[in-house]
Amino acid sequence: MFRSSDHDPLSAAIAPPSNETPAARTARLRAEAEARRVSEEIDEQLKAERAARRRQRPCVKVLLLGQSESGKSTTLKNFQMQYARETWLEERSSWRAIIQLNLIRSIVTVLDLLGDALVGPALDSPSALSMPLTEKHRLLRLRLAPLRGVQQDLQRRLGAAAIEESYNPGPGGVLPRPSSEFAVRSHDGWRSALERFRARPQEAQESARAADARVRKAAEVTEVVVGCAEDMKALWEDHAVREMLRRKKIRMEEEPGFFLNDIERIATRDYEPSDNDVIRARLRTLGVQEYSFWVEQTGHEWLMYDVGGTRSSRAHWYPYFDDMEAIIFLAPISSFDERLREDRRVNRLEDTYMLWQTLCSLQMLSKTQIILFLNKCDLLEQKLRAGVRVRTHVPSFGNRSNDVDTVKKYFQSHFKEIAKQHSPEPRRFYVHLTSVIDTRSTAATLRTVEDGILRASLRRADLL
Ligand SMILES: Nc1nc2c(ncn2[C@@H]2O[C@H](COP(=O)(O)OP(=O)(O)OP(=O)(O)O)[C@@H](O)[C@H]2O)c(=O)[nH]1
Ligand SMILES: [Mg+2]
């Protein structure tokens, strides 16, 4: 099995901050040791399961990699929609709570910003809003306050995956890491989170009373959300609030799990998530999750591995490298002007380049097909239309034209060049420009990808 070394860039990418205090280091090492123990136990269990399955029938294994929020789980959802329709439909309504949480989280973000602005510059200051915040905004804030309690409650019940990882360098350079960061989970990640929100009893042994309590709790959450619907809408549609967001350069529409334009539809008692809602919902992945699909047309079983992409999760990728038919690497190219949520000092595109270089240069992956998805093209287009200039954030872009085609081509050639320079053996460059929230075009991409992977797999089997 592959082990990381001190020199490899992936280790560098997950290295602790240089100004870490002794106390923070002790706590981190202890938490990491525990995470490693749990993770190794899960690896062993998965290995045994995989070996047993392989003995029974052939399967094609694909690993999804990329930084956090790059679209790995969303790609997996597309596969699930296409090849495991029954499970997809069974799980779909359980996403309701996650979508409610996504919506509430956006509202709470706006409320926090509003809170700051209400105690902000005086009306006559140059940075004051042209449309002043008034008593109406204070009241909206007050009336929407119960959503904070609901957010906490949902997050508690959904578990660590529902909490976005983040830390800001605190005083003295201590970077507090939330304990959730080390919550390495079993391989059924989001499934276990969703299970807690199923309407029907989950297991035979679940008592009717426990099932009732779960259903009652879900109804209580819905009642609060429905009760706040009008105020949420008023807040999101308010001109002064929009101006405040614009001034702070916050584009809520680009945030993961954005549902503020769907309040009327979602904040109702009989809301049922659509396919598209589930695709757009955000629940982060912890540890490694394994999914299996049976592809009728070719008679193969596919095993897909979805991993957590935050820096602290990346150490858990290694054990999966030596056993894959292909890797799909997600690079969100709209992120050229963003910073990592878990470390605001790092530019997201730089982080993606670094990960890509690492994967390309690993000797053990030299024969593995790596397929690059330059993802979030829709957001890239949106950003460029809004006037964001690539050159400001990527100086090497130089004086090229800031139009979508030029930008896409530029990024694509940069990834290609990295692959060429750093692969230990020549490798073919497989690339797709994607917006994986667009299920129709993604279905076509996935068919091409699937075909390519299968061919390579058969070729390999022939050679063996
Ligand atoms: N607009 C847009 N949103 C996307 C696209 N791909 C993913 N998203 C959204 O981005 C958010 C994050 O996507 P995920 O698939 O959860 O990201 P991930 O790579 O699995 O992240 P981790 O689990 O944290 O490693 C979700 O809300 C998705 O709906 C895309 O191409 N366009
Ligand atoms: Mg994920």
Domain count: the total is: 2
What ligands does this structure carry? guanosine-5'-triphosphate, magnesium ion
What proportion strand?
A: 5-15%
Summing up helix and strand content along with how strands pair, one would put the structural category as: alpha/beta
Q: How do the helices and strands follow one another from N- to C-terminus?
A: HHEHHHHHHHHHHHEEEHEHHHEH
Percentage of residues assigned to helices: 40-55%
Query: What is the tally of helical segments?
Result: 18
Cα-atom Rg, whole angstroms?
A: 23 Å
Query: What is the number of beta strands?
Result: 6
End-to-end C-alpha gap: 21 Å
Uncertain stretches of 5 or more adjacent residues: 1-6, 167-187
Structural commentary:
It comes from Lactarius akahatsu. One of its GO terms (biological process) is adenylate cyclase-modulating G protein-coupled receptor signaling pathway. The chain has 464 residues and is α/β, with parallel strands linked by helices. The protein has two domains: 221 residues, 3-Layer(aba) Sandwich (Rossmann fold); 189 residues, no CATH class. A six-stranded mixed beta sheet has the order 2-3-1-4-5-6, with helices on both faces. A hairpin with a 4-residue loop joins strand 2 and strand 3. Helix 3 crosses helix 18. The N terminus is likely disordered. The protein binds guanosine-5'-triphosphate (GTP) and magnesium ion (MG). The site of guanosine-5'-triphosphate has 24 residues, from helix 3 and helix 15.
